[in-house]
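Look over both lines:
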Amino acid sequence: MNFSKDISNKLNELLIKNYDAEKGYLNAVDNIESDRLKMFFKRRASERSEFAKELRTEILQYGEIPEDSGSFKGTMHRNWTSLKATFSSNNEETVLEEAIKGEKASLEEYNELLKERNLPPTIDALLLKHKNAIQAAINTEKVQEELVS
């Protein structure tokens, strides 16, 4: 496999994770009552949509084809979160816990890719920007979780 194909494959994996995260946040909006949390989740979904656009652009620049949807695993996780929220006494706290869990998984994916030393500087900078935004979201979600628990 050539260098650009290898990088594109790795970026496509992150792209799928961002599609899943965006859909997960939009799903969360449907599972809570709080207008404050709805806005918070909508902003996270919008941010993940922007990440996906940036990753698609990078993949296209390498002459490869970006993925166009999320994963089966992501769909299953969203369904599990909805079911769990339905039967939970504190729906908002449950949804936030799942959001934090998902963000931590995303953060690990970004950290793994950033460990590679052969990434072009533009991709490295883009991934670092995304990683920092995800970490900030985790920190904010933890604060939100404490407020609703």
